Amino acid sequence: MSLNPVARVGLGRRIARVVFSLALLALAGLLIFHHWVPDVFGLGLIADNLAPWLGVLVLLAIVPLALIRGKLALLSWCVPAIAWTLMFGTAVLPATTPPADASLIMATQNAYVTTNGLLESELTRGSVDVLSVQEISPDQVDDLQRELSDVFPHYVHVGTVAVFSKYPLRNTQALDLGLGWKRALRTDVITNQGPLRLYAVHAASARPADHASRDRMLDQLESTIATDSAARIVAMGDFNATSTDRNMSGLLKYLRDTPSSHWGLGMTWPDRPFPVMRLDHVLISDSLTGSSRTISVKGSDHRGVIATLAPVE
């Protein structure tokens, strides 16, 4: 005997609820265990760095949830929703910015082989105390130093990385971090609040099928910072990795990202039409507190990050 139309609708809805629930539980599993995705054909890299965007799928799932209804479907939807909230919810909220009279303003910008945008931006107009610039040639560094000598009387550069500072820079050391050529540096910034150890980094590029060099640099940076006895440490620059990338997890045992002072996750790349990943970071040790914001700089495909930091009392 064939089912009547009402029975067929009821059976179809029950099947839809089961399929919907299984899909949502799979989404929750991907969200929570994205580090376990095998990095075959770059799938691991993609899953890690786009993990925050899985929240969009959770929101879109509200539409079929409203259509099929049911307790099982609702409970299944709650699993990835709660997981995303626990993982990223607090990061979306605006962080508190330290008071200006006790703060140090540090900024980083991938210049994308152009300096005009830097010179026209707030990065170089007096409010920033220490500026790290990546993807810049030695000739451009010299040109910038001449243009910015009144604002930043102190500067150092290594390879594609330069640091401009209002404060003296001491004990500068070039770092290749296993890359084979210098693309990072370590220097001590002698601030009014005492010395601060700064690592300025331009990590190697990362593509789904080619990110071994970047991974090696991040591993070497982790090992270097793990043995650094400096009281205050900042590592900033273009890491070509988000904080959810499995190859950043070791580094984030010792440093943490500065939270955004605005709503959102502080995405920095690409600048246009809108950023989808936070590849540029100002990472700080537990002896520091602060928040950061992003700005758009003409000519670069990366947004700059400006962090307002203060010592932990």
What do these coordinates show?
The chain is of the alpha+beta class. The protein has two domains: 5-92; 100-311, Deoxyribonuclease I, Chain A. Helix content is 33%, strand content 24%. The chain has helices at 5-32, 43-49, 54-60, 62-68, 71-92, 116-120, 138-148, 212-226; strands at 104-110, 130-134, 154-158, 161-165, 169-175, 184-191, 194-202, 233-238, 256-257, 280-284, 288-295, 304-311. It has a six-stranded mixed β-sheet, covered by helices on one side. Strands 5-6-7-8-10-9 form a six-stranded mixed β-sheet, with no helix packed on it. It is elongated, with a radius of gyration of 23 Å. The protein starts with a helix and ends with a strand.
The helix/strand order is: HHHHHEHEHEEEEEHEEEEE
Strand content: 15-25%
Largest sheet report: 6 strands, mixed
- Described by the principal axes of the CA atoms, the overall outline is elongated
Secondary-structure-based class equals alpha+beta
Percentage of helical residues?
25-40%
- Tally of individual helices: 8
End-to-end Cα distance, whole Å, is: 78 Å
Mean pLDDT: 93
CATH superfamily of the largest domain: Endonuclease/exonuclease/phosphatase
CATH class of the largest domain reads Alpha Beta
- Spatial order of the strands forming the largest sheet: 3-4-2-1-12-11
Give me the count of strands.
12
What Rg do the Cα atoms give?
Answer: 23 Å
